[in-house]
Amino acid sequence: MNASVSEVGLADCYAARRRIAGRAVRTPLTRSAALSARFNAEILLKWETCQPTGAFKLRGATNMIAALLEKRGRDALSAGVVTASTGNHGRAVAHAAATLGIPAVVCLSRLVPEHKAAAIAALGAEVVRVGDSQDAAFEEVTRRVEERGMTLIPPFDDPLVVAGQGTIGLELMEDVPDLDRVIVGLSGGGLLGGIGAAVKAIRPATRITGVSLSRGAAMAESLAAGHPVAVEEVESLGDSLGGGIGLDNRCTFALVRRVMDDHYAVSEPAIAAAMVDLLEHEKQLVEGAAAVGLAALVEHGLEVRGQKIALILSGNAVSLETLDRARAMAGR
Ligand SMILES: *Cc1c(COP(=O)(O)O)cnc(C)c1O
C-alpha cells in the first residue's frame, strides 16, 4: 500500500471521534422490520439525518476545524474558515465553526436561492453573495484564503474531513461487530472512504458497496479511467451526489480505490421509489442521495439474503417540491 501523507487510518478516525464528541451526534442504527422482511435480511438504517444540520458532513467539518485548532492554536484561525458549498457542507461548516467559536464565511453565487442562503446564515455563518456562477464563488474563496488568511474547509478531499466521516464506520462496528456489508452513497468519496478506512481496519471481510447516480458519477468514471476525470453535472433527485472529485484529487480517489469492493449506479425512478418507501415504511423523509442504497438493493437485485446490511441515510435536505417530484415519479 502506498503510505502517502493523505492516507487515513484507524487512529485518525479514533482521534476524530474524540474531537467531535459532544459536537456531532452519535447517530442511531435501527433495524427496519419492513425492509428486513422484504429482503430476507437484517436491514439496518444509520440515521445521519439526526445530525443538527441534517447530514453527516457535520462530522468531517467539525473534525477538521477542531484538529486545526489543536495543532495551530486559536490565533492561527482568527481570520476564520471559508467554503463555497450551497448544500450540506456549507451548513456543516457554518454549524461546526459556530460550535467551536471560529468565524465562518460561506461564499455563494447570486443564483443560489435565498432560502438556502438564509439557512446557512441562520447557523451562524456570514454569507457572501458574489458573481453569478459557482466558479465565481470559488474565486472569492481563493481570494479570501490568499488575501485574508482564511482557512479553506473542503467538502471531501482532506484527510481530516475523511477521518471525521470515518467515525460512522467506528459506530457501525461497535453496534454490529459482525456486519456483512455497508451500502453507501458515493460522490467525492469522503463518506465512503472514511467509513471504509475504519471498517476495513477493524473487519476486512465487511463489504463496502458504493452507489452513485447513473449520470455524472465522477468517482465511478474516474476509477474506470484510472485517474480523476471531469464529468458534466446533471439534474438529479440525488443532487448531493453531483459534482466532480477534483482533477488534482489527493486523498479520496486512492482511498476509495483501496476500500470499495463493488459499485452500482441507480436511476432516477429507483431513487424516487426508495425515497417514498422510506417515507411510507419508516415514516422518515430523506433526500435522494440518502436513498440510493435502498435504490441499489431494489434496482440491481443485490443478493443479501441472511446478511446484516447497513444503509447510510446520509441526509435529509429535501424540499417539499422535490418530494412531490419523487412521488410523481414513483406514482405513489
Ligand atoms: C455529500 C453527501 C454525500 C456524498 O458524500 P461524499 O463524501 O461527497 O462522497 C452523500 N449524501 C449526502 C446527503 C451528502 O450531503
TrEMBL record:
Q: Tell me yes or no: is Nucleotidyltransferase among this UniProt entry's keywords.
A: no
Domain of life, per lineage: Bacteria
Residues with N6-(pyridoxal phosphate)lysine modification: K57
- Domain Tryptophan synthase beta chain-like PALP residue range list: 26-315
Q: Name one GO molecular function term.
A: threonine deaminase activity
Tell me its family: Belongs to the ACC deaminase/D-cysteine desulfhydrase family. Belongs to the serine/threonine dehydratase family.
Q: Sorted alphabetically, which NCBIfam families does this protein's record hold? A: PRK07476.1 (NF005680)
Name this protein carries in UniProt: Threonine dehydratase
Species source reads: Halomonas organivorans
